[in-house]
Amino acid sequence: MIYYFSGNGNSKWVAEKLSFLIQEKVLNISNFILDCRMPRSAGKYSSVGIVLPLYAWYVPQPVIHFLERLDGMISPSAYRYVICTCRNYAGTAMERLRRHYYFDSAWSVIMPNTYIPKYKIDPEDVAMSKIDAAEKRLLDISVNVLECKKGIRDVRHGLLGLARTYIINQIFVNHIDCKLMTLDEEKCTGCYVCYKTCPMGNIDMVNHKPSWKDKCIACMGCVNVCPEEAIYYGKETAHRRRYHLDMLLSDRKRR
Ligand SMILES: Cc1cc2nc3c(=O)[nH]c(=O)nc-3n(C[C@H](O)[C@H](O)[C@H](O)COP(=O)(O)O)c2cc1C
After folding, report:
1. Which residues sit with their C-beta closer than 6 Å to ligand 1?
2. Minimal-distance CA residue to ligand 1 atom 2
């Protein structure tokens, strides 16, 4: 079984690719978080994979809480692995995560940038070459997973991993601010795509317009997915191009 969490489609894509390669089912962690429940069948699987994105060199808090509860539900003999997706570096996220959730092996997979408040999106050729490289990497990972290889830590740490994962992550979490979510009412067509995309169920639709509650994890899903680019997170995003994997891949298919 593969459980995944995804704000912008990258980790979902990784989970689904891997699912095809190893012929295992995928389940979206977001559904469990939204319904405040746990996957009751977790104990029956002999292999349990987790695919998740890193936001500021660590795992989003609601996902940690889910994994802490999942930890005790998995069969003691099961093979357990984690794949984190990030735009370049993971810091010491996997080491920190292992204090909350046990796993035998871990990999990082580099995917296009989604954090548009700080960095521009990758140019299309760069994004596509990351996706091609990820596809090849997943082939290797799938072989290791099928052989239940233990002790693998194939994660790109980058510089100052500890400081980024512990200190900068804490600053990032403390500064997440739902009030920075802004809607351009003129542009918004009330299509509900943001509402359907939010992995935290943090959007209410009021008169067919999004209104944000207080559970935002700053994943940028709603900002990136809005077809009218009507949603901003702070001033920086107003003029930034958006990225969403499904949109990138469907644009490419159309051409
Ligand atoms: C709030 C936020 C913070 C991020 N921080 C990092 C980071 O610390 N290191 C990194 O390499 N990528 C970072 N990224 C990029 C994402 O980890 C990467 O694009 C990931 O594949 C997104 O997965 P998703 O589409 O499943 O949400 C960040 C993205 C967001 C939205």
Report:
1. 6-11, 53-57, 85-89, 111-115, 218-220
2. 55
CATH assignment of 2-171, among 3.40.120.10, 3.40.50.360, 3.40.1570.10, 3.30.70.2120: 3.40.50.360
Q: Residue written as tokens 């046990």?
A: 102
Alpha carbon of 146 to ligand 1 centroid (Å): 27
C-alpha dist (Å) from residue 84 to 92, 116, 170, 172, 215:
11, 19, 19, 18, 22
Could you state, in order of their start, the residue ranges of all structural domains in the chain?
A: 2-171, 178-254
The continuous run of DSSP H or E covering 17 comes out as helix 10-22
Say what the pTM is. 0.97
Amino acid at 101: Y
Q: How many CA atoms are closer than 13 Å to the CA of 23, on its beta-carbon side?
A: 1
| pLDDT tens figures, 228-252 | 999 999 888 988 999 989 888 888 7
Got the DSSP string for 224-244?
A: HH-TT--EEESGGGGGSPP--
- Ligand 1 closest atom vs CA 10: 25
Rounded Cα distance between 242 and 234, Å, is: 14
The fold of 178-254 is Alpha-Beta Plaits (3.30.70)
